[in-house]
Design goal:
By secondary structure, the protein is mainly beta. It has one domain. The protein is built from 1 helix and 7 strands; from the N terminus they run ββββαβββ. The chain has a 6-stranded antiparallel barrel. A hairpin with a 6-residue loop joins strand 5 and strand 6. It starts with 18 loop residues before the first strand and ends in a 9-residue tail after the last strand.
Length: 139
């Protein structure tokens, strides 16, 4: 996503992306994972490189990505001292009575579609990888 696209809604690839959770968050990245059931695997990741501002729950369902409002852009710009290269907004079901508004600012956004296993297995297929927390038995 380039700077010109950075303040519009996110376009996800075709798929069932109902369940979402945070799978990594450090200085270098904020990584959201999505799938239809996150018990065994996920098939999509939004990787925010150089996260600058994050306001979203650790787990949520059925996000509706949208263009950011002028007020959201102004708030984040005031906090950071400059306009962020990427600013993503969405509404999501976080288990409450009303949807929660979420906002993420970062240096860049990469959308990665591949199968990421959340448990150990010996017979991984090509195009599959393990989540960062998965370890072989005995390790």
């Amino acid at each position: 996503m380039d700077a010109e696209q950075g303040h519009a809604g996110v376009e996800l690839p075709e798929g069932s992306w109902w369940d979402w959770d945070v799978v990594a968050w450090d200085r270098g990245q904020f990584r959201l994972a999505a799938g239809y059931d996150l018990t065994y695997h996920h098939g999509l990741e939004l990787v925010f490189g150089g996260p600058l501002f994050v306001s979203c729950p650790a787990a949520f369902q059925d996000p509706a990505f949208r263009a950011t409002t002028p007020e959201e852009l102004a708030t984040v710009t005031d906090l950071l001292g400059e306009r962020p290269p990427v600013l993503v907004a969405f509404e999501a079901d976080a288990g409450g009575t009303d949807p929660v508004s979420c906002l993420i600012a970062a240096d860049r956004l990469d959308i990665v579609q591949e199968t990421v296993l959340r448990y150990w297995r010996e017979d991984t297929a090509p195009g599959q990888r393990f989540a960062s927390w998965v370890r072989p038995p005995g390790q």
